[in-house]
Amino acid sequence: MALTDKQEMFCREYLIDLNATQAAIRAGYSDKTANRIAAQLLSKLDIQNRIAELKAQRNDEVGINSAYVLRRLVEIDQMDVLDILTDSGDLKPIREWPLCWRTTLSGLDIQAICGEEGTAAIMKKIKWPDKVKNLELLGKHIDVNAFKENIDHKSSDGSMTPKPTTIQLLPVEAKSE
Known about the structure:
The chain is mainly alpha-helical. 44% of the residues lie in helices and 9% in strands.
């Protein structure tokens, strides 16, 4: 079934911010009923397929796919502080840093500190990306289950009803006072 012009506009608007209600309003549906209409539109298979098609086109245009995401996660995981330090331990000029460092740091603070008698020092703080979160994303991407939180609800016979646990009570020696 072909989409109406309004439905097509909804699909395109939805990709802007993934907010279905706002997409419906921008596509020309009533503000009062946009929430309900948006839910109805998203439940339609034709709409879902068109949104998926538009997302795939957008991803192709910008070159983002699962291989790109995995490559970037690996680059972040392999970031080494020695890449940005000189042999004496000073920071290299930023233009000499590898691209991964320049595009991934969460922050870089440089402060000049004036001491006694006009002496000055420069303090540099580098904020690394969250390496643990990065590894978690890598693990999820390649499905190594390294961070999967499973609770096994099955009993030893494979049923979903756990067997009652027997607790063996040991006699307690009486204390003499």
